[in-house]
Amino acid sequence: MNLITTVLLITITLSTILAMVSFWLPQMTPDAEKLSPYECGFDPLGSARLPFSLRFFLIAILFLLFDLEIALLLPLPWGDQLLSPVNTFLWATAVLALLTLGLIYEWTQGGLEWAE
Fold it and tell me: Among the listed ranges 36-45, 56-65, 80-89, which one has the minimum average pLDDT value?
């Protein structure tokens, strides 16, 4: 057998053994405490299904957007070793300008203000 077949065989065998042990090992004795929706020791005060504010999702999406911006601009220092580093600089500037314009638009529309 070659190396790839051996590694696949060991992986499948180990995964099967661990899956079977995980079904037999835990103790399945539920009691009233485990079946209750809260295990923290106090009764819930209100409904757990209150809707989130739309502003919360807006701030979360803006955070993800600027986090992606960092991921897009991370290879920028290596872009100066390409044949045309000016082209890399122009694309990075275009991405930053677009995100800056979007941020200014959200700011002027009041989308970043948490309380009304």
Answer: 36-45
